[in-house]
């Protein structure tokens, strides 16, 4: 017959198994910090080198020329997104190797699906906005849809991701009403918020 | 006082309890995922799965991914009921013991 301490261990085991088999646990604080730094770098580059600032310019008329500033900024944003995602992947991969775990699991697939459905939806919408010359709404919308993606993904990983998602959504919605500040708000959301989140995760779980 | 009501003998093994816990939060899991979570050998896992299958607590779904066979497991409603009453009994037991 089992004793009390056995039952307590049973419960601990059940809880840990549910957690282990339903949450993605390979997120690294460094991924957040790097993504934040890359975003800040991108925002600086857009502002100082490409001289980009929507500055209240909600809409431009006519078709956007291919070599225009908008297209360059779009290209820059894509580079920032891809490199941030790649570094996040690298840090997760490293963590998985350290722990001897696999990275491609049903949980990972669920996490990515939840994240990408809102993000791809947003991407298409933003593309349509740009085609119609509504450039001022692009930066706020990236925040909103990225936030929705994080919020959805948050149920498959650390609860902090969900909170970060909410922060991005709020910043994005605020930026819609203050388009003239949207580049700064974008830098705060993708840059500052990521760095603070990353440091918090690092201190709480990895130090 | 050791409770017997609600506790199921099938869940006395921690591996079986682990299988049920993982299936409680995942609609379906394949053999390899279960093996990875529990960190046990193929033979060991297979025998515990068989025992739970015999109790009709878990079901099997066989399919193919390309040409590779893929066996996935899920919790049956009987399994859900038994697991829940097992958890309730554990909870009740620990609660009643706290009073002493």
How would you portray this structure in words?
The complex is a heterodimer of chains A (207) and B (100). Chain A has 207 residues and is mainly alpha-helical. Chain A is 76% helix and 0% strand. Chain A is built from seven helices and no strands. The longest helix of chain A has 31 residues, at 69-99. Chain A is elongated and about 75 Å long. The termini of chain A are far apart. In chain B, a hairpin with a 2-residue loop joins strand 2 and strand 3. Chain B is built from four helices and three strands, in the order H-E-H-H-E-E-H. Chain B has helices at 14-25, 31-38, 42-54, 77-98, and strands at 29-30, 58-65, 68-75. Chain B has 100 residues and is of the alpha+beta class. Chain B has one domain (12-98): Orthogonal Bundle (Arc Repressor Mutant, subunit A), CATH 1.10.10. Chain B has a three-stranded antiparallel beta sheet with strand order 1-3-2. The interface between A and B is medium-sized, with 21 and 20 residues.
List the SSEs and their pairings.
The complex is a heterodimer of chains A (207) and B (100).
Chain A (H helix, E strand, L loop, with lengths): L3 H19 L6 H21 L19 H31 L6 H26 L6 H16 L5 H19 L4 H25 L1
Chain B lengths: L13 H12 L3 E2 H8 L3 H13 L3 E8 L2 E8 L1 H22 L2
Antiparallel strand pairs in B: 1-3, 2-3
- Can you count the helices of chain B? 4
Poorly predicted runs of chain B: none
What is the CATH architecture term of chain B? Answer: Orthogonal Bundle
**Apparent shape of chain A:** elongated
Taken from the alpha-carbon principal axes, the silhouette of chain B is elongated
At the first level of CATH, the class of chain B is: Mainly Alpha
User: How far apart are the termini of chain B?
Assistant: 11 Å
């Amino acid at each position: 017959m089992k004793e009390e301490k056995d039952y307590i261990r049973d419960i601990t085991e059940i809880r840990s198994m549910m957690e282990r088999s339903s949450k993605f646990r390979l997120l690294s604080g460094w991924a957040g910090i790097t993504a934040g730094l890359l975003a800040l770098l991108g925002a600086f580059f857009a502002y100082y080198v490409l001289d980009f600032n929507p500055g209240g310019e909600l809409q431009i008329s006519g078709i956007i020329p291919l070599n225009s500033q908008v297209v360059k900024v779009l290209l820059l944003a894509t580079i920032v997104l891809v490199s941030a995602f790649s570094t996040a992947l690298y840090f997760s991969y490293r963590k998985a190797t350290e722990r001897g775990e696999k990275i491609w699991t049903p949980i990972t697939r669920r996490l990515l699906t939840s994240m990408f459905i809102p993000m791809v939806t947003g991407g298409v919408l933003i593309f349509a906005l740009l085609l119609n010359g509504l450039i001022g709404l692009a930066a706020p919308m990236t925040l909103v849809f990225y936030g929705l993606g994080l919020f959805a993904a948050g149920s498959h990983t650390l609860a902090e991701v969900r909170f970060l998602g909410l922060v991005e959504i709020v910043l994005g919605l605020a930026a819609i009403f203050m388009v003239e500040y949207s580049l700064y708000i974008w830098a705060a959301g993708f840059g500052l918020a990521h760095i603070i989140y990353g440091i918090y995760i690092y201190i709480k779980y990895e130090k | 006082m050791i409770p017997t009501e609600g506790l199921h003998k099938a869940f006395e093994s921690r591996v079986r309890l682990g299988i049920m816990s993982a299936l409680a939060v995942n609609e379906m899991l394949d053999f390899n995922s279960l093996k990875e979570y529990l960190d046990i050998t193929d033979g060991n896992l297979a025998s515990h799965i068989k025992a739970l299958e015999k109790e009709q607590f878990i079901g099997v779904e066989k399919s193919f991914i390309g040409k590779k066979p893929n066996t996935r497991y899920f919790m049956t409603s009987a399994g859900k009921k038994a697991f829940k009453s097992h958890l309730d009994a554990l909870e009740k037991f620990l609660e009643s013991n706290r009073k002493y």
